[in-house]
Amino acid sequence: MFSSSTSSPDSPRFSPTIGVAAAAAARDAGGPAGDYYDFGNTVLNSSSYAFGNADDEDSIAASLGFDDVRAPGGGSIEAWNLPNREKVNVVRREELGGGTWGWGYTVWLVRFDKTGSNVERRYSDFVWLLECLTRRYPFRLLPLLPPKRVAISGHHLATDDQFLERRRKGLERFLTFVVNHPILKNDGIVRVFLGEENDLSLWRSSVPYNLDEESLSRSLSPREEAALPADLDQQLISIRQRIIPLVASWTAFASAVERLSRGRKNEADEWQRMGDGIESVLEREASEWRPAEVVAGVERDLGVWGAGVKEVGRRRDREAVDTELGFGEEAKRHRDLYVQCRDLFGRQHTLTPDAVDRLKRRVDGNIKKIQALRDARERKPTYDEECERFTSAIEADQRHIDLLLRRRVFIRYCMHQEILYFFRCTSLFSKALRGFVEHQREHESSLTTAWESLEGNLP
Fold this sequence. Notes:
Layout: H1 20-28, H2 33-36, H3 57-64, H4 77-80, E1 88-96, E2 105-112, E3 117-121, H5 123-136, E4 151-152, E5 155-156, H6 161-180, H7 188-195, H8 200-206, H9 222-226, H10 232-286, H11 292-351, H12 356-375, H13 383-425, H14 427-457
Antiparallel strand pairs: 1-2, 2-3, 4-5
């Protein structure tokens, strides 16, 4: 009647904290998982924030592109490549007082043109959103938050303009990833973050929301389970073994692009300083005696040269800004993608172990206790009560085991989907590379024009 011989890979003990009892209660009541908590959606309240159902496996596969492309070699390049990203704009609004220990805090204006939303958020709201997504979707690629700074020797470094600008760009990359991820973008809490006009701290204190792990609300179909490749474990091992050095390489690449942009900015500043220096010399000389008939030609050439190199500086500065905001951000986004993949493997290693083996041993022990009661020569007065108690415990443990075994399969399914999506995201960097080359050609042509103009103005 009670079998504990289900085959599964051995794993260390782990006490899951994923709300198993709630999900089991929903299944015991005879309803589908969606009755408890729709996949990809948050149960908030019955009067507001009603979000669409994403339980249909075909719509999910289509949103991921896996209906057309099951593997890099399984479809056309056009089907494999991702479309252009939806963009979220984050603007620094103002710094307000009243923060922790009396320090000020920065308010960020979050604009999402696709929905027309325009809301104010604090950095702590972004932290809360990431915590929610981590609890709900631990086996999905998750975005990276820019770091938080603290005060040192009374100086509040988090209000430094350069730091805040870097944070603004990081927050934009964070939200842009979320609104383009095929699963995360449909989550109810994400929609609340982007659309709720009130202070999120007030919303969190007044509206109940569900943070159960995704595996509790999503049951795989036989077709989805069968679609998992037989060598998936070998594929994951291969990626996991090389992801850390790849993170290091792409971090170095992004840093090199940043240095390149900064170097061009410095070069532009030097050209400007040289031009300003020439102007200063000519202004000073114009008010003093000198043999004008002798130096007139030199002064004219200096004036032309100074104006020319300042124009070169302005064009080099535009190139530096375009590189920083364009290819530089794309390089950081690509680097972040590899860091996200590394962190995904870290969560898989930490959160995959479960209590299946321990529960199986407990089921076996309770089966033996029931058998011992039955084999006894004389039945105890409490025989029926003890048998019922052991039977109920076995049934509860079996439900728990079944839930955890389904979770194991779902984890592998998520890892397969996310790794495919990870590689699909790399297609966006190909567009960035082509765009960078095109912009470089345009900027170099502009610089050549500036030098040729200067050359033509000098006799």
